[in-house]
Amino acid sequence: MRKVPILVSSCLAGIPCRYNGKAKTDQNIVNAVARGEAIAACAEELGDLPTPRPPAEIVGGDGYDVLQGNAAVVSIDGQDLTEAFVAGAQKVAQLATSNGITEAVLQDRSPSCGCGAIYDGSHSGTLVEGDGVLAALLKQQGLQVSARRGQ
């Protein structure tokens, strides 16, 4: 019987796709992708955001609030990136669905992938409880989502 892969953040898989053009490599995840046990995806790049790009945070809530239209994802220079973040999250969620994925390991604190803690929207480095847009959408779809901090 074929084992269903897990979904992982591309930056954890060593792909330099973060806002600053770098990766947050986790060697265990790199190895899992190489073995075909994990599929890497970046919601921000799939939402057509460039790499590198200005850092962004959720203003007015968390990923669930963004999905309900009650909060926004805003870059440090004031650009509303909500549409791109939601579009990218939807593409990753579809990838998970089409591959029968039931578990995701995502980069912590990200406005897309953060799980349990995200930045507060002030761009001051302050963390608050909450999930990023992708993490919220995947949880709504019933996936088990956890966060990890790469190097």
Mean model confidence by pLDDT:
96
Number of strands: 8
Q: How many DSSP H or I helices? A: 5
Ends apart, CA distance between termini: 34 Å
What characteristic shape results from the CA principal axes?
globular
- Taking Cα atoms only, what radius of gyration do you get, to the nearest Å? 14 Å
Helix content: 25-40%
Give the SSE order as H and E letters.
Answer: EHEHEHEHEEEHE
Query: Spans of 5+ residues with little confidence (pLDDT < 50)?
Result: none
Strand content: 15-25%
Strand-pairing-aware structural class: alpha/beta
Reported for the largest beta sheet, the result is: 4 strands, parallel
> Strands of the largest sheet, in order across it?
2-1-5-8
Overview of the structural elements:
With about 150 residues, this protein is of the alpha/beta class. The chain has 5 helices and 8 strands, in the order βαβαβαβαβββαβ. It has helices spanning about 25-35, 45, 65, 80-100, 135-140, and strands at about 5-10, 40, 55-60, 70-75, 105, 115-120, 125-130, 145-150. Strands 2-1-5-8 form a 4-stranded parallel sheet, with helices on both faces. A two-stranded antiparallel ribbon has the order 3-4. Helix 4 (about 80-100) packs parallel to helix 5 (about 135-140). The chain is globular. The mean pLDDT is about 95.
